[in-house]
Amino acid sequence: MKVLMLFLDGVGIGPDDPGVNPFLRARLPALRSLFDGDVPTLTRPQLSNGTASLVPLDATLGVEGLPQSGTGQTALFTGVNASQLIGKHFGPYPYSSLRPIIQEKNLLRLLMNDGLSVYFANAYPQKFFDYFRERKTRLTVTTMSCHYVEFPLRRFEDLQSGRAVSADITNAGWPRMGYAIEPIPPEEAGRRLVRLTHEFDFVLFEYWRTDKAGHSADMAEAIEALELFDGMLRGVLESLHADDALLLITSDHGNIEDMSVKIHTRNPVPAILYGRHHRAVAEALTRVPNLTSVTPTLRHVLSEPITASG
Predict the structure, then answer these.
(1) How far apart are CA 247 and CA 7, in angstroms?
(2) What pTM was estimated for this model as a whole?
């Protein structure tokens, strides 16, 4: 059993209104292929068929205010309700008192403790490592998790060799930073991630452009960000063996799904499941349908046999 997790920053389930929801305007053939041509909206937030399942997850975690990345990602990647623990939503980076929780309970560490192999596929330019040496505290939950388990973040050389994927999916931003590298089609990025699952039990990729586009309130930018991701998803679906692997796509809070505002939303986020045991995993997530259920569910999926079909 292998798991490929695609973490999309700032993606909720939005209103059934193409005037504000770019999911209803973008060309998303790969995503729509999972659900018989449909996409989730607040009027139909839960979708399921023989191919895939979609469960809405609460990102508010019982706390007033707008969900933020620091607490949302801590809940997502540790299973701990970080917002309730500190009494507020906080971000974009984790609140200082949450760092010991991330250090001890992050998903990568838990899976490694279970004897499983993990891989964080994002590639980072040298300027990130230079900045990290100066200010170690300003890390996202994913990069902080890698730091705590001593998993080396991928560099330009990994991107060149096909063992990493750019955060912008196609490598488009790297030449502007002085790197000589050709762009790749988004489908190739998806195929690259699937190839990594042949070597590792759990592969994670993080896509931040969705949150950036949501903050812009620019519909054209939002549509472009979603269509680029859909191209990568097409490459994943074309190459992933659904009998042997599970694909999970989820987020930390809403944003891009409502372009009428430039701020985060309190909308639920989707947990999209495709492949092996997708129904059983969806059922497990619905028992505690919020961000805290993802880490324990994935740990169970990877560490213990599941006998349910689908």
Answers:
(1) 11
(2) 0.97
